[in-house]
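Input structure tokens:
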């Protein structure tokens, strides 16, 4: 049996004993830089694996193809959606130009199956048909939405929208109420500064607004894919949801909490509203997977 070192062993020994071309602080600067690059690459790889392996439904491949098509066609702010976007993304399921009734039936089936996508291409079609998002197209109910966060402006958005969707696993959550009549209403939580409030810009607050292009949480080029989960479609609970959200908004304003990267944040506010309404338990809120997907969601409400 030969004792000759293997090629891999020889390469390792050569690297170990090689003379580094840099010395002193320059050498350590390169080492630290390489370490940081490695950490970022590892972080991105872990997030990519999580993004492609969890919350993907029964057909992950079809889901990924759908997402990539939406991201490709999703237009920047101020630019019209391509006329081929909807037929390409939804043509197989709905045809090239479905009416409101067909879209409502499709989204009802999707909601019954569990988590579904309400994306930029779909809401663009609904707005062209009805002028607003309401129960004519989106089935009445209370929903929790979650989406990646990213810029909507050129020139970065064509790249950042893909990176935000797949290389960052965490999501921002909000609540959507679709009443039997009237426009859909979104409950969004964030920093005062994000809502254009100059006083106490870092304070955690909530906005309740019609779910339209001017709402804080509305599908856009940088945030094109919204994962929706219907909490209830009971008419009594849906009817009372707006007042419940107004109460949560008032409590946030009274508490004067400072927004935190991990908690308390927008996900904390949404989690507390859901727990207070009986839609989720504290134990379910605190699951490890939810903590990774929606940081702060399981933080204490007191």
């Amino acid at each position: 049996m030969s004792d000759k070192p293997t090629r891999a062993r020889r390469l390792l020994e050569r690297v170990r004993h090689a003379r580094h071309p840099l010395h002193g602080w320059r050498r350590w600067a390169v080492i630290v830089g390489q370490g940081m690059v490695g950490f970022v690459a590892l972080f991105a790889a872990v997030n990519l694996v999580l993004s492609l392996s969890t919350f993907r439904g029964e057909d992950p491949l079809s889901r990924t193809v759908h997402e990539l098509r939406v991201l490709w066609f999703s237009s920047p702010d101020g630019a019209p959606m391509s006329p081929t976007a909807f037929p390409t993304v939804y043509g197989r399921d709905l045809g090239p130009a479905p009416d409101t009734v067909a879209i409502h039936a499709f989204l009802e089936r999707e909601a019954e199956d569990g988590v579904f996508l309400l994306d930029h291409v779909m809401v663009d079609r609904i707005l062209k048909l009805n002028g607003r998002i309401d129960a004519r197209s989106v089935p009445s109910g209370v929903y929790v939405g979650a989406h990646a966060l990213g810029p909507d402006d050129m020139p970065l958005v064509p790249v950042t929208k893909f990176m935000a969707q797949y290389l960052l696993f965490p999501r921002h959550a909000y609540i959507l109420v679709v009443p039997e009549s009237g426009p859909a209403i979104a409950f969004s939580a964030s920093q005062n500064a994000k809502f254009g409030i100059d006083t106490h810009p870092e304070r955690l607050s909530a906005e309740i607004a019609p779910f339209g292009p001017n709402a804080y949480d509305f599908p856009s080029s940088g945030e094109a894919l919204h994962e929706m989960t219907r909490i209830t479609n009971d008419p009594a609970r849906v009817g009372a949801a707006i007042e419940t959200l107004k109460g949560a908004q008032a409590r946030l304003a009274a508490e004067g909490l400072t927004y935190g990267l991990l908690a308390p944040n927008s996900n904390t506010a949404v989690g507390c509203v859901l727990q207070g309404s009986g839609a989720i338990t504290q134990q379910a809120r605190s699951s490890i997977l939810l903590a990774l997907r929606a940081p702060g969601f399981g933080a204490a409400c007191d």
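The mean pLDDT is 92. DSSP finds eleven helices and six strands in the chain.
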